[in-house]
Amino acid sequence: MSCVSVVIPMYNEARHIGRTLQAAREAARQAGLACELIVVDNGSDDHGPRIANELGARVLMVPGVHIGALRNRGAAAAHGDWLAFIDADIEMPADGFKLLLELEGHQGDVLGLDLDTPRQAPWFAEAWQRRSQRPASRLLHRVQWLPSANLLMRRRWFEQVGGFDETLRTGEDKDFSLRLRQADAQLLLVNESVALHWGYEGSWREWMRKELWRQGSHLQLLRSHGPSLRLLRFPALSMGAWGLDLLALLALFQGQLHLALMLLLGTALPPLILSLRQSRRDPRLTVQLWALHGVRLHLTGAALLLNLCHWNVRRPARG
Fold first, then answer.
1. pTM of this prediction?
2. Looking at domain 3-201, what is its CATH homologous superfamily?
């Protein structure tokens, strides 16, 4: 019987780790796979490691490293023919591994499931998750990159690209995907069945802080892969938005109200275009994403400036 090694990075996820482990084990059972559960803890001070241990997972204690290092340590300790990387707050559907295994090889090499939020998530967390969901009219999507919240691959692909970049604080999934594609791996996103993301942001403050942290990877990715339209596009939009905001303030101080309003409208256009592309003609979702993209655009500029000043938003590596 083939074995899947499920690698789960964790930091203070006692609320979710039990559900994550039980769901992964059941998904492996339904796929006819033996299951090895490996939790790599980044120095939790809650009961997460104890819960994981009681549920049969092998717990590795690796404090003080970035998220890529946690995943690499787990993969190094794994014995399975398959490697699955799952975040500690992800509930895999019971048929998740079975679906992905049926598609591996002839449809894709590295595979992941689309994500959704539980019903109790606040509107901004739900809308932000929905923006990345693929249209239900197609169940399979060849993509440029896969988020590392849930990934399944044969071990050889992981070894061929050398695993995750351990120097990246965030954005390790984009870097990993870029190197997989350079190695001619086919990346496939499946939404015939979806995984649930229980670690949604419960407050505006949490959402903003997490986005500020996420946007801190742009400069590192540019240094690693060089300038490209894909990597430069959003940072350029963000700096443009900041520039228009400053010009609008100057126009306002000079009493040129009409010019200030025109400049602010210019700032609002990129978020609107992004929201229209992602909302799939849902007016309510369009308005929600318009507001969220506007905030994110300015957070990206703040993250770039903080990185240029060598000040990083601190956040323990977690799944």
1. 0.84
2. Spore Coat Polysaccharide Biosynthesis Protein SpsA; Chain A (3.90.550.10)
